[in-house]
């Protein structure tokens, strides 16, 4: 039985996935909804179970099975067939084999559409359901369903008089005609053609997602208004039960596959009328074959729209597709916004400063001299002394300049694409406009990301075209070649490999910056002109303490002497995380040479791991004395779900809740590797800028790693002592 412990999760998720969710409780609500008709509930359950168990026993990956991706189409087929035909041995056999057939059709669609990064949605259900409806015309032993007239009897058997009274009350409640059609459309997703089922589904949808619930109403009423404008009788929606196409399309494109925001909501004003036209026209076609159009318009519209977005050159209208699907519009929104705030836009490959030490930006983006038009996104770097001068003596010779002949580093891993290494140095004040870029190296970091470093010293470039370089490799020395009247390093990012290509706006990662007498350490930044910048050298103790290695075990004791073990693992997408054995909680993190960032947490928020996730949310391995790091949390990671209920409704347009992270480094600690380092910080929760609550924390770190961790909140005081760190 332990081998099938995944089955309840997969079962409930299969129901919830009909609304793009993996919320267990929402799945349970929808499962109960199907039992408004007892046989529909049973046959739907058998169909999805057949698909899930088949997937498991043929060896499919457990993760998509557990998430319900391979079950929800089989569920819809089972429910649909049970609605149309009388129960019996033949129908039972047909439903079991159709559940298995739908699984394999789902795998086929996944293989075809997955190549283009597209979901298969409910296409497997539609195809199998149509095939079986056509084939059933030859199945004389199958009788059409006549149970609808006995619904009250079936409900009485399930819940007695109370359930019957509730069912009749909802169906007889004087809802406005449009709202009644909305509930009928919601129920029709599971072939339940009554208001009671629709209200039940709406409550479940509201519990699962406030944004999803809002979008369902918005999508439906946009269609309602469009029907009125066209003069099409709105009863068409009620009688044909195709209104759920507008509901599912709105949820899918307004907040599930696209980050919910003003743009995604506004786009529905165009998309939903298109779905309405598709629904009306396709129904006319399928009437010729006596087949229901069902969810085909939704599938066609969503897949076409998502595929079309893949041809964009930019995101000027603000429709951002999901890069990490969390099966909740709210979670997708909060985590996307937080990721953009923390790591910047369009920076999947970290690019670092290409030099040692502290340099000053003497010309930044949209600079005063040469950084204009197609070359506006670039930096010029020089070294200044305490008096702000870039040279010693009179500055008459290149060697007088502090940055001249300094080492230039590879800004990231890549392959050398272009090299110019034979341009003579300029005398001070002179320019070589014929060979504008001077000695230059271009490095390919990905198919559409290249770095260019120019005005290098003649003959100093070490690698040749085709050579591999890694971050921090010495690749050249700085000179004064090309359009350079005095030594400086020109650095730009571009999307093509040619020297002098059009620049792109791409940030630099892990930058320490002093600007306007304020020190800051930024995960990503476009530092401005006048800023003093550097890449901090990692402190050995900090790097040793927080550089978690896959396969490692972290063992420590709490103040009550309870021993706790964390394992460092990778998931199927190669995301690294800490897993707490006692609680089953997971804290995902991103680690590079200079920084640790925690990116996500799932599990028990009373666990020690959750507090560690909050406290170690952003750790720099290098620091200046007294440095303070600041960051922000996704609000759903620090606030209780009840506290963000109203925020969820407003989140696509306005966010008034905030979770802030602050970490302070010691005033005197840099360079003292033998002295323990104390890191202190706090987590602050606020609403409309007003502080609501805070937690404080402290790390004590020495050369052996994390010696102790202390976390204090209003209701608890956690103290832990590290015992050891074991490698696998």
Automatic annotation (TrEMBL):
Topology term for the membrane: Multi-pass membrane protein
Membrane-spanning ranges: 25-56, 68-85, 91-109, 116-135, 181-208, 215-234, 240-258, 265-282, 288-309
Pfam family, one: Peptidase_M23
Alphabetical list of PANTHER family matching this protein: UREA TRANSPORTER
Stated name of the protein: Urea transporter
Family statement drawn from the similarity comment of this UniProt entry: Belongs to the urea transporter family.
Domain M23ase beta-sheet core: start-end pairs: 406-495
Primary localization class, coarse: membrane
RNA-binding found in the keyword field: no
InterPro entries xrefs: Ammonium/urea_transptr, Dup_hybrid_motif, M23ase_b-sheet_dom, Urea_transporter
Top-level taxonomic group: Bacteria
Keywords of the record: Cell membrane, Membrane, Transmembrane, Transmembrane helix
Compartment(s) of residence: Cell membrane
